Amino acid sequence: MTGTLYLIPNTLGESEPESVFPPRNREIILSIKHYIVEDVRTVRRFLKKVDKSIDIDSLTFYTLNKHTDPKEVASYLKPIAEGQDVGVVSEAGCPAIADPGADVVSIAQKKGYKVVPLVGPSSILLGLMASGFNGQSFAFVGYLPIDEPERSKTIKRLESRAHNENQSQIFIETPYRNMKLMEQLLNVCQSSTLLCVACDVTLESEYIKTKTIAEWKKEKLPELNKRPSIFILY
Amino acid sequence: MTGTLYLIPNTLGESEPESVFPPRNREIILSIKHYIVEDVRTVRRFLKKVDKSIDIDSLTFYTLNKHTDPKEVASYLKPIAEGQDVGVVSEAGCPAIADPGADVVSIAQKKGYKVVPLVGPSSILLGLMASGFNGQSFAFVGYLPIDEPERSKTIKRLESRAHNENQSQIFIETPYRNMKLMEQLLNVCQSSTLLCVACDVTLESEYIKTKTIAEWKKEKLPELNKRPSIFILY
After folding, report:
1. I need a labelling partner for A26 at 20 to 30 A (CA). Which of A144, A229, B18, B164 fits?
2. Residue A231: which H helix or E strand, with range?
């Protein structure tokens, strides 16, 4: 019998586990002894939050980030071949969504291991739900290019695709550059284009608003600096 | 004080609430008296499952489907203006994602009401997490066209976009046509293209496998008939 690779979502910032995880996640976490993580400290803190009684010292952690050698990644799945379960925990939100976890999942799939994703918060999905935009067709494209003119070109291309294909276009920015992106969107997009900003999703300070570019221009912009945000054009 | 529009996910089939909803969802549900739903019977059953003690007769239900007049939809949000919360419940999964709920969210956003999405299961997101495909760039495109040659053309276009833009392409089919779609994907796509099939997500019978088209062709296909499935090309 081989084990299972569980994909375990983390909170999006300092929210309570009760508000974002089903009770099942805790049960599964309590049965796992091997964890693949980006940063051991974050995940220790996460596990303690899920259940104070977890004996962290009895667990094995394997570090996965963009510098990890693919061969080493494959070795992280050895416990599965030996019948033990392995968990992948994200730094925030769902593993393998805008997150390096996808590489280890891909290896597990190639080896034919069972992969089980657990329910948890995704700012992309929650933002889209609350945007009022088309949820029958949508795309997430990650980060925009940093340098001009590539950046403005990409914004225009996303705006065209939103209009021509009726497909909501979702993207993110490094939080300290959010305000710059917001201003750029207001400069580059057409006044009738709809822009949704979803900030601090699942936190008490959650802010999710949809307005046309023209409406956003008329108002004082929300403070997005250093607050995790997603942006959606439609 | 105006109320809040809560977006409340439903189970994906007959799974237990404990395995897919955070405890917070139940607390919020217990405080809501007005529900916008596609089918009143499904939602009554859902509410009873969340908490047997809910007094269904004290609740007001408003029906939303593709035949509902937009003016009527706007009237469903009246309780919010009067300071009461309103819940939108999906037939399965997350409201406004591949679901008519987006229209009512759009009206709420236009009116400036607070919209709060709750965490729950999305077969699209869970399937993508477990696929091992690119989660930094992905698109969901809903249903494929039914008639040929449009259908094959669309499959080829999605396959090209997956390769050229490095963007995972997610789509669905009416469950009784799943096997036909599966066969068609094997015929139309290149042998090295990766296809993930995610079936009965969050149920005990959950099946999520990624293989190349060539590998899928060599094996007995999984039984997908009438089982809700998502398909991802990469």
Report:
1. A229
2. strand A229-233
Residue with tokens 């996808």: A102
* Strands across the sheet containing B229-233: A207-212, A194-199, A229-233, A168-172, A138-143, B138-143, B168-172, B229-233, B194-199, B207-212
| Angle at CA of residue A133, ends A130 and A136, nearest 5° | 110
User: What percentage of chain B has pLDDT greater than the value 90?
Assistant: 94
Indicate if the pLDDT at residue B130 is higher than 90.
yes
Question: Which DSSP letter does residue B82 get?
Answer: T
Asked if B98 reaches chain A (Cβ–Cβ under 8 Å), the answer is yes
Which of A24, A130, A202 lies nearest to residue B18, judging by beta carbons? A24
**Per CATH, which fold does A4-117 belong to?**
Cobalt-precorrin-4 Transmethylase; domain 1 (3.40.1010)
State pLDDT tens for residues A173-208: 999 999 999 999 999 999 999 999 999 999 999 999
Strand positions, DSSP E, chain B: 4-8, 34-37, 60-63, 86-89, 114-117, 138-143, 168-172, 194-199, 207-212, 229-233
Q: Which residues of B fall within a CB distance of 8 Å from A126?
A: 117, 119
CA B173 to chain centre: 12
- Integer Cα distance of A194 and A210 in angstroms: 7
Instruction: Give start-end residues of each CATH 3.40.1010.10 domain in chain A.
Output: 4-117
Which of B19, B98, B110 is opposite residue A24, by nearest beta carbon? B19
The token duo for A12 is: 């999006």
Query: Which residues does chain B have within 8 Å of residue A210's beta carbon, measured at their own beta carbons?
Result: 106, 109-110
Q: Which segments of chain A have a pLDDT < 50?
A: none
**Residues for chain B: how many in total?**
234
Closest CA–CA distance from residue B57 to any residue of chain A (Å): 27
Q: In what order do the strands lie in the sheet with A86-89?
A: A60-63, A34-37, A86-89, A4-8, A114-117
**Where in chain A do CATH 3.30.950.10 domains reside?**
123-233
Q: Determine the Cα–Cα distance for residues B210 and B132; give it in Å rounded to an integer.
A: 8
Question: Looking at chain A from residue 114 to 153, which residues have their Cβ under 8 Å from any Cβ of chain B?
Answer: 115-117, 119-122, 124-142
Question: DSSP readout, A39-91?
Answer: -HHHHHHHHHHH-TT--GGG-EEEE-STTS-HHHHHHTTHHHHTT--EEEE-S
Check whether domain B123-233 has CATH 3.40.50.2000, yes or no? no
ipTM score for this prediction:
0.96
Among B19, B21, B129, the residue with its CB nearest the CB of A95 is B129
Q: Decide if pLDDT at B202 tops 90.
A: yes
